Every structure is written in structure tokens, then in C-alpha cells.
Amino acid sequence: MAITQIYLNLPVSDLEVSKKVYTAMGGTINPDFTGDTSAQVVFADAIVVQLMTRETFATFTKRSTSDGPIEVISALAAGSREEVDRLADAALAAGGTEPREAQDIGWLYNRAVDDPDGHSWELLAYHPAGGQG
Length: 133
Description:
alpha/beta; 2,3-Dihydroxybiphenyl 1,2-Dioxygenase, domain 1; 4-stranded mixed β-sheet; globular; Lactoylglutathione lyase
């Protein structure tokens, strides 16, 4: 059986603020899987982020959800450098933070955005053949 989708489940401190950041980065809320303690954000048919209050998230694991070292940096590819800037700026206006300056290495352009809980996302545009992003 082949993998058909990726679901990222993230604990968040303030569900409403997190929903604003993730929709600003281009996601849409799926009301069928959204409630008072959890929200499903769809970026594409195969890319889904489930935001959960820390209390709800804790019901799915025995591990601590306390702040600790970063374990993953997720990335979303956009179609152009301009789209990366638009999405990053919108996420920042919605409550995200930018932990570092944009990177432009010719074939790859990216900006980092951390959500209010410190989950790190790279918004990127690239041309693997070496073209400009």
C-alpha cells in the first residue's frame, strides 16, 4: 500500500491564534474535523495539519508536550518567491514570528516562520535545475 497523505498533528496553546497563522500561510479550515479543541488545516489534498490544544494532543501520546528542543522543521513549497513573501508576511501579521532572515541561494528562496507555539515552518520556492525562485 502506498502512502497517500501526510498529516501533521501539532499541540498549540491558543487554537484561535494558531488557526489565523496557518490560514495566513495558505491553509483552509476543514469544518468537518474542527471543533473547540482541534482544527484541521488543509494545504493540499495530500497535506493536512491538525492543530490541537495541548490537552487534546496529550490524549494521543504518553510523552510530554512541554517545550523542549526543536524536533522537526516542516516546509511548504510555493510557486514563486513572491508567493513565499506574501504567505510569510501574512503569517507574521497573523501572529507568527520570523526567526531568521530570508535565504536566497539562487535556485532556492525561503523564509522561516514560527507559529505562536514555536513550530517551525519553511516557506520556499525552488527550481531544482538551478533556475531562479
